[in-house]
Amino acid sequence: MSVITVLRRPVCPKCTRIRSLSVTRLWFSSSSTVDEKFELGPATTKFRNPFEKLRLPNTPCRTRFAPSPTGYLHLGSLRTALFNYLLARATGGQFILRIEDTDQSRLVPDAEERLYEDLKWAGLKWDEGPDVSSLPYRQSQRLVLYNNFAKQLIDEGKAYKCFCSVEELELAQRTAQQRGGHHGHSCSCRFHSSESLQKRAEAGQPFTVRFKSSETPVVVQDIVYGRYCRNVRDDDFIIMKQDGFPTYHFANVIDDKFMKITHVIRGAEWLVSTPKHVDLYNAFGWTPPAFAHLGLLVNMNRQKMSKRDGDISISWYRERGYLPSALLNFVAMLGWNRGNVRSDVMTLHDMINQFTLNFSKGDSAVSFEKLPFLQRKHQQLLFQQKAYEAQWSFVNPITDIIESTETTRLLSRRTEPSQSYTGPDPLLLDSLGAGIREGYRENGKGSLQTHILTLLRLTILRANNSNSASISISDPSKTHATCQDFVTQHKYLFWGIPKHVLESTFVCDMLSRSVNQAQVPAIRHAKFWENLHRAVIRETVAALRSLLSLLSELDAQDWGEEHPWTLDRLQPIVKTLGSSETAPAAPPNEDGSGFRVGIFKVYRWALTALDHGPSIGNVMNILGKEETLLRLRNALEIAEKYEMMPKVKTNHRNRLASNSRIVSEDATTRF
């Protein structure tokens, strides 16, 4: 029997690597021509499905997040921690937190504590780490281990002590470049005997320890990028520094081995260093973990993220009220391909159930346009699920903002607000509402927090119940991405409305509040505007008087021990007054008469000086009896003042044509 082996290159021009050659063996005998034919993949392994490497292992995975306390947790590092966490949880494994503090000169004093706080806030709980185990999970506590393994490599001739100065190494590099070659050995100490190097060390000369890199480039198999190999061998890189601390390359290999890490998910900037790590694993005879390198986060100009682009510490997002679930949802979408899953909204539980190793190659451009949308959706989930503890955690930063704004308002009477102040203009705020002031006197901060929680539930769930996802995404008045936005957009549900603001909005926006553009005839002469203006004032006065009259009757009734000022008592009144708006719309006559005032808009102006927010009944219930009546009387006083004027000059044509917003921060300058 004879055997002929034929090497055949694939027809596809893209598959021209020698490792892709197929092998066809022809077995000949006297009775047959071809007995068997089969093809082999790379080396002697069978063909593998290209998507097989993306599937999760069937065994529990041990992953780690190993930050350096030389800075604070930012978006990129949070994404790395999240993906390692998800892999461990999805496979029933363990997630380890390790502190890599070998770069002692760059340590930031509070970075480690901030790291713990940010990870706990994000909900990424680790199974092993410095604060949950007696074992050393800081590299500075494992120096003996690193020195022992460095000595082992030296004894086996796989590493050597290097006494070269920085100047000598730079000279060697320049000489090699001038010769057009690659100076792979880095220094001449590699060629000295171990005895001579040991004598110099015993004499007290400072030295580093260098690893003898493989003479041929090391091949790395990466889950994301596939086969990776540099064109030239690595230099003999340092594994132990002169101060006795290991380098990152050496320490992370030793730690991953002894912590039994099975998978390493990290940024693509470490891919170029991975051959060094695999070379070390091979030198010790260890099996390296599986590697998956994530594309870098870049801005929309494909440049490295900076603080200007939002790549700042996670505490920045915490302080501004972003929910941890929303931020995790946001970073999870940066480089993770979820297949046919359509919804962008994911809880941490959803991420665990859906997780795969299907990461995209290349950098991920970060656009923050999606973050406010995710914040709104997770706010809605939070209040739908009645997670009271989580809801209160959202209330606390709003409380701090309100107290800080109130302090600034009081100080603004004497000094200008600081440049760092980003809250509402203190000049556009009156004192805190009567209900809040009274609650502060009786219960302190708790009354304000209850007020905030009630308002949050109304605004967030109202947006969710609108059955219009497109409106809730595009209209910022429906829900609010940050606590600062929430306070600013609902400022008059916390603070009183100064009379000059209320009067300014009445004059400037009266027509856009009361008359629909479709109701205005095409021909609009001066007399029409004058009569229309008079009619608006007259109808506004009547609407306010009607509401005050009904509320006075409600207050006069005897409800026994039950407090009369409740939503159940207020809603029927509002419904009664609003029933007139159910009639068909009719355009004004030529003299400006014949139209109906939008009384709900009038009431919203009188109570909040805004054009959005909770229903009128809910607003009155939130403000309380004293504050509601005070605001309605102030509004009626302003309307009656203009009713008595012989003539009022306004710019209604432009205001109505532009359909402008009711309140802006320059209200006082417009008046």
Automatic annotation (TrEMBL):
One of its GO terms (molecular function) is zinc ion binding. The keyword Nucleotide-binding applies. Its EC number is 6.1.1.17. Residues 62-371 form the Glutamyl/glutaminyl-tRNA synthetase class Ib catalytic domain. Its main location: mitochondrion. It comes from the Eukaryota. SUPFAM superfamilies: An anticodon-binding domain of class I aminoacyl-tRNA synthetases (SSF48163), Nucleotidylyl transferase (SSF52374). Residues 600-636 form the Aminoacyl-tRNA synthetase class I anticodon-binding domain. It is found in: Mitochondrion. Keywords: Aminoacyl-tRNA synthetase, ATP-binding, Ligase, Nucleotide-binding, Protein biosynthesis. GO terms for cellular component: mitochondrion. One of its GO terms (biological process) is glutamyl-tRNA aminoacylation. The keyword Ligase applies. Transmembrane segments: none annotated. InterPro entries: aa-tRNA-synth_I_cd-bd, aa-tRNA-synth_I_codon-bd_sub2, aa_tRNA-synth_I_cd-bd_sf, Glu-tRNA-ligase_bac/mito, Glu/Gln-tRNA-synth, Glu/Gln-tRNA-synth_Ib_cat-dom, GluQ/Sye, GluRS_core. PANTHER family: GLUTAMATE--TRNA LIGASE (PTHR43311), GLUTAMATE--TRNA LIGASE, MITOCHONDRIAL-RELATED (PTHR43311:SF2). Belongs to the class-I aminoacyl-tRNA synthetase family. Glutamate--tRNA ligase type 1 subfamily. This is Glutamate--tRNA ligase, mitochondrial.
